[in-house]
Amino acid sequence: MLLSIGMLMLSATQIYTILTVQLFAFLNLLPVEADILAYNLENGTQTFDDLPARFGYRLPAEGLKGFLINSKPENACEPIAPPPLRDNSSGAFIVLIRRLECNFDIKVLNAQRAGYKAAIVHNVDSDDLISMGSNDIEILKKIDIPSVFIGETSANSLKEEFTYEKGGHVVLIPEFSLPLEYYLIPFLIIVGICLILIVIFMITKFVQDRHRARRNRLRKDQLKKIPVHKFKKGKWIIHYEYDVCAICLDEYEDGDKLRILPCSHAYHCKCVDPWLTKTKKTCPVCKQKVVPSQGDSDSETDSSQEENEVSENTPLLRPLASVSTQSFGALSESHSHQNMTESSEYEEDDNDNIDSSDAENGINEESVVVQLQPNDEREYRVANTV
């Protein structure tokens, strides 16, 4: 699961990078704003804002220079009058068209068929700039000239001072920029998808870690099955390993509750219980499991019944965990009885060793005396000793 999510995250990152690069490369070539530079007969210059259409050819990078002609009819919803003939073929003509009454693509297509190199569509009763579009694919395939949209105030100024009849001309200059609405929305969508994938990955990892931690901890019902004994000085002789709690390093006091683990290690209940229920269900010292794993729990009953059965595969030494069946008191009493038995046996062995050593010394002394005496005296002494 984690591997598939990691591969998905990698794929999402690669897709995001590729789309971002392609988006920037495409938008860098797409003029989303433009200016109209208008020149009159007195070399007066004025700049007007416009917005290119989403269909037709783009404006050239160096701009498009031409003479401005009013459309006839103004709405260009039907074929319009062609531009005037000029001896100088280097000059292009740009038509000024009024909005409304038909679609933008129809207006621009009629301007193209009339012989104009570009079209300027102006708003009516508003200076708002509109991005001109089209839904007719057949018409879009036929449009080859660029077109822009301007406000009504700009159109009135162009008609008054910069038309072909008044000796003016215009230059359509594209401005290559990246407006916020063109790249921010796709960027936010991609970032949102990546964030959602990251959140899903983090939630999945959290659930798996939580499940793993819960599986490695001891439950409350399992904790209650581990025996607890009260420590009493003088009553039980405690093994030296149980003199100090290995967790808090405090000596055991009378009345302290000690929890005896199956590995025979004892700890304060207040010390070992949080370890078992919140960290791991193993002994803090020897790392032996306190309870069998889930797979072993099913066979726990069978193994306990067969514990006393002996076969050829039975090990010579029992596992250390078998000590856990003894209570802490019984364990301490067994240690006490064993120590007393060993001490009594040790005293008897000492007495026997003393008697035997005395006897050996007596025999050695007698044999030495016998060897040093003459034969007659040796027989006499031997007879007396018998």
TrEMBL record:
Its EC number is 2.3.2.27. One of its GO terms (cellular component) is endoplasmic reticulum membrane. PROSITE patterns: ZF_RING_2 (PS50089). It is a single-pass type I membrane protein. One of its GO terms (molecular function) is ligase activity. Residues 290-386 are annotated as: Disordered. CDD domains: PA_C_RZF_like, RING-H2_RNF13. The chain crosses the membrane at residues 182-207. Residues 375-386 have a biased composition (Basic and acidic residues). Pathway: Protein modification; protein ubiquitination. Keywords: Endoplasmic reticulum, Endosome, Glycoprotein, Ligase, Lysosome, Membrane, Metal-binding, Nucleus, Signal, Transferase, Transmembrane, Transmembrane helix, Ubl conjugation pathway, Zinc, Zinc-finger. It is found in: Endoplasmic reticulum membrane; Late endosome membrane; Lysosome membrane; Nucleus inner membrane. Residues 297-310, 344-358 have a biased composition (Acidic residues). Its main location: endoplasmic reticulum. It comes from the Eukaryota. It is an enzyme of class 2 (transferase). It catalyses: S-ubiquitinyl-[E2 ubiquitin-conjugating enzyme]-L-cysteine + [acceptor protein]-L-lysine = [E2 ubiquitin-conjugating enzyme]-L-cysteine + N(6)-ubiquitinyl-[acceptor protein]-L-lysine. Residues 245-287 form the RING-type domain. PANTHER family: OS02G0798600 PROTEIN, RING ZINC FINGER DOMAIN SUPERFAMILY PROTEIN-RELATED. This is E3 ubiquitin-protein ligase RNF13. The gene is Rnf13.
